[in-house]
Known about the structure:
CATH topology of the largest domain: TATA-Binding Protein
Radius of gyration: 20 Å
Strand content: 15-25%
Number of helices: 6
Number of domains: 2
Helix content: 25-40%
Strand order of the largest sheet: 1-6-2-3-4-5
CATH class of the largest domain: Alpha Beta
Distance between the termini: 35 Å
Mean pLDDT: 93
Low-confidence stretches: none
Largest sheet: 6 strands, antiparallel
Shape: elongated
Amino acid sequence: MQISRFYEVMCVQHQWLVEDWQQYLQSHPIMGRFIQRLVWLELDSNGQIVNSFRPIEDGNLITNQDEEISLDQHHFITVAHSVLLSSEDIAQWQSHLKDYKVISWFDQLSHPLPDMNKFRNDIINDRHGWSMDSFTVRDILTELGYERESAQEDEYFFCYHKYYSRLKIYIHIDFSGGMVPEENILAVLDRLYFSKTPGYQDDVVKLDNLPKVLLAESYANYMAVADASNGFDPNWRNKVIWDT
Length: 244
């Protein structure tokens, strides 16, 4: 539960006051150990990064150069992510975690932002037409915390979604569809988008309004499905049961 909680915190770029972070996380007998397996950022009042650091067993905070730091009580703390760090810092943190044999609770340092120039109308669809089977779609997205949408007419569904309560946003990944009860059929990946309600509506959230980390992680989920596929099938429209 805590891994899921902190993953969501990272995605929505939640910030703690330094005092609260120290009291409720660093000083906590259990969470104080938990947070040692994550990289953190200290932000000033303008949201600019002051330090990236990791707590260690003796209670100190160290950078990726093994330098000890102290936190400014007027600053804020957030979970680090690759879209917030320079390529140099990312490489140094990857080396640091490897040297210290730290196994992170989840990947903070590998997922970039997609090329936003490729998308129109706030819909991400650059892997539309990539084919696989429907159980592959289900297994990957379920493992990533997505749920199947309600079946239409109790027979068909075309989307998996994931809800982020802190932002009141649904992430949707559409595909060519499955049936209930489920059978393993040909499936084609469609689109990724965000909205305030489950199901495709007219209230698609603008990509520019999303936290960068949420966008990067959601795109990584979309790509996880694409990467498990057989690649783009130019004849997919002639093979699926329902057009998408």
